[in-house]
Specification:
Helix content is 49%, strand content 17%. It contains eight helices and ten strands.
Length: 331
């Protein structure tokens, strides 16, 4: 749940002042009498104080009551902010929508114009955060008129069956009552931005079972193993790199071998001599070159084997020269 910051508290105070100053100034509103305007102004003041104390449920209720008396957008946008702090994202979005639908005129107070702009921005940021829950019905008894689906204790409208429905983050209780009177109870816990699907299978006798489509909180797709063409490229790349190391190591080893044999016939030198350093370097480079060639051969051999078992319409061209190897292909 988002936290209220010092800047948000100051913004609440500024909106409170703006609302108090403009409740009676808007010409786009039906003009209430003085007593109604005064009551709305008092409620707005109490709501602003509750918001700053982080009593968001109280603030949302008071802003809603004030807006019911005087439909100023500066009140409904603050109601939306309070509801958002409570995690009641669906209600918050509706408060923002009411604000955006306020009809501005050329002489509308600046506070009203800013409220509508703020609501538009808040709504754009909020919508991706609202979870979606799809409750689908299947099986031979799915169309039974005796079937009852309850979401958090309230009947779920038929129009929301089988489609993603916005719902607040958190835990929700689902009850399905079949024609035989037996109930299936299920709870789902949704995080912000998550989408989940629960399919309810109803037998002809009214018995109900549930199965859920796999999903996760982040909405990310499950990891997919590399395809065979991708493995061809990987193995071929390792093979080419190995051959490169082998070739370079071999060239350097040849140079060191010449130096070593010139200083130490049969590669036998006195310990600590300059020739001994050349001998040690030659042996090290020879080992590196050998390992490189082995890795290169294994990598290219693996790539060739994968290529031969790949689908016919996808091909790889492998060209090996005296000092290079090239892997080309289309997948």
């Amino acid at each position: 749940m988002p936290r209220i910051s010092v800047s948000s508290a100051r913004a609440a105070a500024s909106w409170l002042t703006a609302a108090a100053l403009t409740l009676s100034a808007g010409r786009g509103l039906a003009q209430p009498d003085d007593a109604t305007r005064n009551a709305a102004r008092e409620l707005a003041a109490q709501a602003g104080e509750a918001f700053q104390r982080k009593e968001f449920a109280v603030a949302a209720d008071l802003y809603r009551r004030a807006h019911a008396l005087v439909g100023a957008p500066s009140l409904s946008v603050r109601e939306g902010r309070a509801l958002e702090q409570l995690g009641r994202l669906v209600e918050a979005s509706e408060a923002y929508v009411r604000t955006t639908r306020f009809r501005l005129t050329d002489d509308s107070p600046r506070a009203f114009q800013e409220a509508v702009q703020e609501a538009n921005s808040a709504l754009s940021a909020l919508r991706p955060r609202i979870p979606k829950l799809t409750l689908a019905l299947g099986g031979p008894g799915a169309k039974s008129p005796d079937l009852v689906v309850l979401l958090n204790g309230k009947p779920l409208p038929a129009a929301l069956i089988g489609v993603p429905a916005p719902i607040d983050p958190g835990k929700h209780e689902i009850v399905v009552r079949g024609a035989d009177g037996k109930e299936l109870r299920r709870s789902v816990d949704l995080t912000e931005g998550q989408a989940r699907t629960l399919t309810l299978e109803v037998a002809s006798g009214g018995a109900v079972t549930a199965r859920e489509q796999p999903s996760d909180a982040s909405g990310s797709k499950p990891a997919v193993a590399p395809s065979k063409p991708a493995l061809v490229w990987i193995a071929g790349g390792v093979g080419v790199a190995g051959l490169g190391v082998g070739i370079v190591g071999g060239v350097l080893a040849t140079g060191r071998h010449s130096d070593a044999t010139a200083a130490c016939p049969n590669l036998r030198c006195a310990p600590g001599s300059a020739g001994q350093d050349d001998v040690d370097a030659f042996r090290t480079l020879r080992t590196v070159s050998t390992v490189g060639y082995v890795v290169g051969v294994v990598g290219l051999g693996t790539a060739a084997a994968l290529w031969l078992t790949a689908p016919k319409e996808r091909g790889v061209a492998l060209a090996v020269g005296p000092a290079s190897a090239t892997l080309r292909g289309a997948f």
